[in-house]
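[job 0417] fold request received: FHA domain-containing protein
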Amino acid sequence: MPQLIASVKGVEVKHVFLHKDRTTLGRKAGNDIVLDTMVVSGNHCAFELVGVADVFLQDLGSTNGTYVNDRMVKERTRLHDGDVIAIGPYRIKYLQASEEPTTAFGGTHMGSIDPPQLQASFSVMNGSSAGLEMPVVKAVTTFGKPNVCVVSVAHRRGGFFVTHLAGSTAPMLNGSTFGADPLQLADADVLELAGTQMRFQLRE
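[job 0417] inference complete; emitting structure tokens
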């Protein structure tokens, strides 16, 4: 099954299997793939699955354009294995064949990862949700409020990494703001998203 692997600054943020005849991508919530950043148009582009594994990319009149291997595409374009699609800060690698996904979340299929040796979670420290514990069990988990502050926490072989994805308010890690460059999380780190503080926890 064809798949798309989206990353920002080398950190995987979405892993999507193309199982529908038409998969749409954009900033608006009604899209199959939602990338919540202003450089992505509300309805940016679409992926059309023809037959078993042929995929065509169609830009939907986006403001900032859609690029395949650094070339802007305006016409319906067939994708080839290994092509890299650039949309704003996102780099989306197209793979023509893959194994079936093992889990699904919100209609988007996520790729499986090696079982973590440590269990990770966030514990909310303040506000009405103080004491709430949120486990980090997927390859990529997002936290925050759309259009305010959204971060992703990615589990890789080297550990857990946090990245600012979208929103006008910069997140903070241990009192210092950070951006799109991934930062590795350590036990007891404090992540702050628009005033909400969460303590990162690693357990055996």
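[job 0417] notes: The longest strand covers residues 149-156. Confidence is low (pLDDT under 50) at residues 99-116.
[job 0417] exit 0
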